[in-house]
Write a structure and sequence with these properties.
Distance between the termini: 56 Å
Strand order of the largest sheet: 3-5-1-12-9-10-11
Oligomer: single chain
Strand content: 25-35%
Radius of gyration: 27 Å
CATH class of the largest domain: Alpha Beta
Number of domains: 3
Largest sheet: 7 strands, mixed
CATH architecture of the largest domain: 2-Layer Sandwich
Number of strands: 28
Mean pLDDT: 94
Number of helices: 17
Shape: globular
């Protein structure tokens, strides 16, 4: 068996057969004796003082408010600041967004709990509302949190690099305000929590939750619970999607364990779709005033980003850490001499934002790629050429970006060239010219990006039992990405097995001591590197034991097919089962750990081709080519699936989705009739290609690919639409590029820089 028989091959997902025959176990599939059900009473107001809470006495119904919890309990905020306003798990006298939890109702069935919750009366005293993040930062704006002097949560400002020495007459500067609307993650499975108190036999509080980070929740519960003798076990069973939003810790994930201990009964809560759309953290929610300066031959010399980020009502988990990632990636794949950034994070009376596929990096890429297209149009330079002229050269890696991050490796022009060739870019430009003469409006959009991935650490364990069964335990927590298959391929190569022979266990804090979950495209890079090290250690242990039994040198042994034999003498062999049976504890095991010291930087180029119907403003996607470089590829099938999903969500942002609020602070997208998701019919065949530039920062050479599709495709699709609208004098429009917005621009009412009307459109 070669050293890499499975790595790099298209192995079908080993997770899928069980799921396809209905063998999955999601939160709502789980039930226990004595289980009671929880419904949450939520604020109907975006900002108000809660004067009183009352409920009729109903047999078998319990109503819990913040007063019943004792000391206030708040969600963790992982970026501390003097202007920090943490989210209480139940409102303590004031609510700051529609949907904020005020009380919980507990009953013997979910239906009874919901009915009783509707009978809870809350007396509100409404307060002034701040919905727009820019308005929230103006002098005199109503202050959302009385203990703070303003609605400014955090600010990062710097100016770095070489001063521009070129004469002003030889420079061209474009300026544009560019928006990223709020997005809902909309996982197929909504959130859910079950909490079971300890039994007499076992002093363990057990929590099942649909999360991306079981260990993170366990650690927060340990801090919260006063009983130091009580063990906490968190289990993430099958998780039906998360997209970053399930990486945060939510009120219900702390409330149910606390109440289960208090009441001595197991409790269950499953989120409705309306709750999910209104109360799960939203993604994006940024805008930037972008100023890009270049020489007249199209060389970038200076960039300024004045960013305002909408955090929503509170600091919650990682939301304040997302906008700084935009700052980290401010210059993207381009060699820019001077960069200036001013980032302000604002509190508003909306649900908190948080990580959503890409988390800060799609924002940076979109600002740059829209600015590059606007500048190209200003100079009369082809969009592909203006990118090529400004790429960081391959011989400059590792490259220290002006923001301070260090790009590991990159060959940006190679990805661009492959995308142009695969998309038939030149031919589409010709068709575009011919089409305009016929009254057809096609657009071609480009996007070249670099993003940052991976963080933290992960631990893993491999074991071979007395039957020869190999089980891998990982601290990551995949939720649909196919991580178990990639892990099995890595292990299989080291141990000479087939991937199907390896069982991968994840999402259970009782089985592996620590892990940072699944986010930031870290699953195979970090979790895979940890398991690779564990596999190498286990292989060495197996061969050492076999050498003693077979009376041979380790170098003369071959490990394959679940047995070790002497090279050239396959009859002299011993099985893994036999070696494990003779081990102490009847098991062979090894541990692995991988700590990220330096991040990885995937990159690529996407090309989108669209046509716009001038009668309706509807966009038809004709072609999408994605060339992504995620370093060494473990499984091309998994990579393609990730890119397809990312492109779909990018198209959703570019053309359809908007988690709108009205001026009074009421969310307008509260059902899937109001929140427009793209359907399969919206997409052409997505062509997924790769270049491969290994990362020197981990033993696999991998970079991560989970967010590449969203980072690369959002600006490509938007650029294509606006390229089609160039015939109408349109320079920029805000996302989502809905038929109404496009038709209005085409028919003269909104020509120019951007469409300012951002209200009332879903």
């Amino acid at each position: 068996m070669s050293a890499s028989q499975y790595r790099g091959t298209r192995v079908k997902r080993i997770e899928d057969p069980r799921l396809l025959v209905g063998g999955g176990a999601f939160i709502d599939d789980l039930a226990f004796p004595g289980l009671r059900h929880v419904a949450v009473v939520r604020s109907q107001y975006p900002h108000a003082v809660v004067r009183s809470i009352s409920a009729p006495a109903i047999p078998g119904i319990e109503v819990i408010t913040a007063k019943d919890l004792g000391d206030p309990i708040c969600l963790p905020g992982f970026v501390s600041d003097e202007n920090e306003a943490l989210h209480p798990v139940l409102a303590t006298g004031r609510v700051c967004y529609v949907g904020q939890p005020i009380a919980v109702v507990i009953a013997d069935s979910a239906y009874e709990a919901v009915d009783a919750a509707e009978q809870v009366a809350v007396d509100y005293d409404p307060l002034p509302v701040v919905i727009d993040a820019e308005e929230a930062l103006r002098d005199g704006a109503p202050c959302i949190h009385p203990h703070l002097a303003s609605n400014l949560a955090k600010r990062i400002a710097w100016r770095r690099g070489k001063a521009v020495k070129t004469a002003a007459r030889d420079l061209v500067t474009i300026e544009e305000r560019i928006y990223h609307q709020r997005l809902a993650a909309v996982p197929l499975e909504t959130r859910g929590v079950i909490a079971a108190p300890p039994t007499d036999a076992e002093r363990t509080l057990t929590v099942w939750t649909s999360t991306q980070s079981a260990h993170g929740l366990r650690d927060e519960l340990r801090k919260l619970l006063p009983d130091g003798d009580l063990a906490v076990r968190v289990i993430a069973p099958d998780v039906g999607g998360g997209f970053g939003a399930k990486g945060s810790i939510y009120c219900e994930e702390l409330l149910l364990p606390v109440l289960a201990l208090k009441l001595g009964r197991p409790l269950k809560w499953v989120e409705t779709r309306r709750e999910n759309l209104v109360t799960m953290s939203h993604g994006r929610g940024q805008f930037a005033d972008v100023r890009l300066t270049a020489t007249r031959d199209g060389r970038f010399v200076a960039l300024r980003l004045g960013i305002v980020a909408d955090l929503g009502a509170y600091i919650m988990s990682f939301n304040a850490a997302v906008p700084p990632l935009t700052v980290d990636m401010a210059q993207g794949p381009y060699d820019i001499a001077r960069v200036e950034v001013d980032l302000r994070e604002a509190y508003t009376n909306k649900v908190p934002t948080g990580p959503y596929r890409g988390a800060g990096r799609p924002e940076a890429a979109f600002y740059l790629e829209r600015a590059a297209d606007v500048l190209a149009a200003e100079l009369g330079v082809d969009p592909a050429e203006i990118r090529r002229r400004n790429f960081i050269a391959p011989d400059r890696f590792p490259f220290k970006a002006i923001s301070g991050v260090s790009y590991d490796s990159g060959q940006y022009a190679r990805a661009l060239d492959r995308a142009l060739e695969a998309s038939d870019y030149a031919a589409w430009r010709g068709r575009q010219r011919e089409g305009r003469a016929e009254g057809r409006y096609m657009g071609i959009g480009l996007s070249s990006y670099v993003e940052t991935c991976t963080y933290g650490q992960d631990r893993s364990r491999l074991q071979v039992d007395a039957e020869g069964k190999v089980t891998a335990f990982t601290g990551t927590s995949p939720h649909g990405q196919g991580g178990a298959t990639g892990f099995a391929q890595i292990i299989a190569d080291v141990l000479g097995l087939e991937p199907q022979a390896i069982t991968v266990v994840h999402g259970d804090t009782a089985l592996i001591p620590s892990g940072d979950g699944t986010a930031g495209s870290r699953t195979l890079v970090v979790g895979g590197s940890s398991l690779f090290r564990a596999a190498e250690t286990l292989r060495a242990k197996i061969l050492d034991r076999a050498a003693g039994q077979l009376e041979a040198r380790v170098d003369d042994l071959v490990l394959t097919g679940g047995r070790v034999h002497v090279a050239g003498a396959p009859g002299r062999s011993v099985t893994l089962a036999a070696l494990a049976a003779r081990a102490r504890g009847k098991m062979l095991s090894a541990h692995g750990r991988y700590i990220v010291k330096e991040s990885t930087f995937p990159f690529g180029t996407h090309v989108a081709v669209v046509e716009i119907d001038p009668e309706t403003g509807e966009v038809q996607l004709l072609r999408h080519v994605a060339v992504d470089d995620c370093g060494v590829v473990i499984n091309p099938l998994l990579v393609e699936g990730q890119v397809h999903g990312g492109v779909a969500q990018a198209v959703g942002q570019a053309l359809f989705e908007d988690a709108l609020y009205d001026a009074s602070g009421q969310p307008l997208a509260t059902t899937l009739m109001d929140y427009a998701l793209p359907r399969a019919t919206a997409f052409p065949v997505i062509v997924t290609l790769r270049t491969e530039t290994p990362s020197p920062h981990n033993p696999l050479g991998a970079k991560g690919v989970g967010e590449a599709g969203t980072v690369g495709a959002t600006p490509a699709v938007a650029n294509a639409v606006i390229d089609a609208l160039a015939a109408f004098g349109v320079r920029h429009l805000d996302m989502p590029l809905t038929p109404r917005r496009i038709w209005t621009a085409m028919h003269g009412a909104q020509h120019g820089r951007r469409a300012p009307d951002r209200s009332g459109e879903a």
